[in-house]
TrEMBL record:
Full protein name: Uncharacterized protein
Domain of life: Eukaryota
Higher taxonomy: Eukaryota, Fungi, Dikarya, Basidiomycota, Agaricomycotina
Amino acid sequence: MSHSRVALPRDAIIDNLHADPALCVCALVCRSWVPASRFHRFEEISLSQKSAR
């Protein structure tokens, strides 16, 4: 029995998950998925100022 590797369409998978909680899991698949996962995960960042009392 022969085993062959299949190339996954990484960008298509991550792009379709960009609003899904499963996007965080994509970064755990392999190191090459981390940059694209982070791009979508941190696409929008909100900062707020708390009063210093």
